[in-house]
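Q: A reviewer asked whether we had any structural model of the full assembly, not just the individual parts. We don't, so I'm hoping you can provide one. Inputs are below.
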Amino acid sequence: MTQTATTYEVVIGLEVHSQLLTSSKMFCACSSDYTRAAPNSHVCPVCLGMPGVLPVINRAAVEKTVMTALALNCEIPAHAKFDRKNYPYPDLMKGYQISQYDMPLSKDGWLMIEMADGTERRIGITRVHLEEDTAMSRHVVDGDGETMSLVDVNRSGVPLMEIVSEPDIRSPEEARLYLVKLRQILRYIGASKANMEEGNFRCDANVSLRPAGSTTLGAKVEVKNMNSFRSVVRALEFEVERQTEVLSAGGVVAQETRGWVEGGEGHTVSQRSKEQAHDYRYFPEPDLPPLALSAAWIAGVRARLPELPEAKRGRFVREYGLGIYDANLLTDTRARADYFEAAVAATGAGRAKAVSNWMLNDMARLQTAAGRDIEDVAVRPEALTGLIALVESGAITSSAARSVFERMFVTGAPPDEVVAELGLTPMGGDDELLTAIEAAIAANPKAVADFHAGKTAALQSLVGGVMKQTRGRANPERTRELLHSRLNSS
Ligand code: ADP
Ligand code: ZN
Ligand code: MG
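A: Here is a predicted structure for the entire assembly that you could use as a starting point for your response.
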């Protein structure tokens, strides 16, 4: 009898912590922008966790959390409250974190992800709640070679949103798509910088396996310490493989927390078993009032929700006649979409396709080479449409326009100035063109011979020679015509 190996289904749920973009911290007036601040320069008795002080709820943080929850299709309850989550931790100044337990700001939402083959999957969002970030430890070696730990309290009390997914994700790739989509939405609504490498967007990944077809959940492993999307995918791939091996060998997967270790092939190590799990002894935060969220206030937040990526993409297809692929790229970030619409507004919807082409080809290529986001591109939308108009009117050839654009990208100067600077106005009459044609013929006798031998395709390399000599100023049509009659007459 042959035994068929059991196939397993992968089950993943993600917990994302994302710092909110508010000017002050969650419960005090300290600045929450600590990225370049000297250690312990953004602190006060509240975020230092001194006894006898009182926290005050940051309204902007509540709003941004609710806005995020609405963007994720969550329900907003009429009442919410904060709770104390108690645990001992050197970076936790009060010995507890103010978080939300059984009455969070939102629950029961969803996020659509789109697979490479175009199919969509709906991932449930369990809840989006609000809490505070902890301080940070730095382990340093002092002059005597001894290791010591220093605490920087700047991050303590920075508003932190926790977004918990349902265990609806079925592969590491789906997990990546979920994170990409979530990050895009957070950035669109200005809720968070959502940058994993900078540590303001952090992901714990829960993963388990179950026999295909089973509807009960297997024991899950929570993986921590990933600091890039790539690490999340690698950690999940590693865990899927490890758990498959354990189960295939007839073993049981221990429910535990594991840490991702980046080096080499990468692997996970056990950090804490189920038995060592914390008992957080949650209880309602006595120093803060519960929150009443009126329907009118929620409606107000909903009204301020910006157009989200999917809606924008659909509108770009309808309004500007773009393909879905291009519309997707143009709406990748809100800044890129805004740039596109500013350019189209400056020139008319009839040129939308031309604007899109410039943005997705030459501009995207130069941006990648320069490592520059659209916000920092020197070419203003009106300058780009000015360039498009110059090409359309025949004032410059499209090949010359590409050199002009490259220069504009560097200097930010308007197109007509750059055209003059580079001497790229098209040729007036045929005289200069004929000279260039003679030079191209002289430089490429093989193409001439090929042409006379009946290989008409050889003409194209001569046209190319002329374009090169004239730096794109020659009209390719006219060049071909003149070349043709010149070669046929000789
Ligand atoms: P815990 O009590 O350990 O915090 P939760 O039930 O709150 O666990 O879930 C935390 C995260 O783990 C959620 O994102 C959830 O979707 C995910 N999760 C829960 N059970 C499983 C499982 N068996 N396999 C994979 N992910 C799971
Ligand atoms: Zn403070
Ligand atoms: Mg939980």
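A: Points you may want to mention in the reply: The mean pLDDT is 94. The first strand starts at residue 8 and ends at 19.
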